[in-house]
Amino acid sequence: MDFDQAFNILVDPQHEGGYVNDPADPGGETKYGISKRAFPTEDIANLTLDRAKLLYAKYYWGPAGCDGVPPVLKYELFDFAVNTSEPGRPVTAIKALQRATGAFVDGVLGGHTLMAAGSMEPNELFRRFAAQVIRYYTGLDPALRARYLAGWMNRLATNLEKM
């Protein structure tokens, strides 16, 4: 899987879809998954798909190291980085990868983490990473879980079905 394929899956209406402005969402106004909170200078209502693609490549796909992980994990790592990270700082996603691979957990993507990921059997890597994703979401604030957990788990289930 490459970035273009991952982006097309991400912006599918099942995932990040179109424009929403849910007052209960900590991200605030959002379009294609790009939030006003994360990108305060962006005109979210008028955000184009091309601009969203540029932002995702620059601030999520690249910094999360998606090109360096085995193909089975590229999309899930990208998706989790998008859903949990500040632009350009996918620390939560990298820590999940490090926990899944048994690498030292510091939130910094390096050669040891990538080597550990590359040396694992692909299905085991994906399964262990998915477990970290579940642990993250179920460990969040109860108010956030009450409102969004079903959606996050459905999103993960869809990813599991597609991979």
Description:
It is a single chain. The chain is mostly helical and 163 residues long. The chain has helices at 3-10, 49-64, 71-84, 91-101, 111-119, 122-138, 142-162, and strands at residues 19-20, 30-31, 34-35. It is built from 7 helices and 3 strands. A hairpin with a 2-residue loop joins strand 2 and strand 3. The model has no long low-confidence stretch (mean pLDDT 90).
By DSSP (H or I, 4+ residues per run), the number of helices equals 7
In terms of per-residue confidence, which ranges show pLDDT below 50 for 5 or more consecutive residues? none
CATH topology: Chitosanase, subunit A, domain 1
CATH architecture: Up-down Bundle
Strand content: under 5%
**What's the N-to-C terminus distance?**
10 Å
The proportion of residues forming helix, as a percent range, comes to 55-70%
What brief labels describe this structure?
7 helices, mainly alpha, 163 residues, 3 strands, 4% strand, 3-stranded antiparallel beta sheet, Chitosanase, subunit A, domain 1
Provide a short characterization of the protein structure:
By secondary structure, this protein is mainly α. The chain contains 7 helices and 3 strands.
Ordered list of secondary-structure elements with their pairings:
Elements: H1 3-10, E1 19-20, E2 30-31, E3 34-35, H2 49-64, H3 71-84, H4 91-101, H5 111-119, H6 122-138, H7 142-162
Antiparallel strand pairs: 1-2, 2-3
Helix pairs in contact: 2-3, 3-4, 3-6, 4-6, 6-7
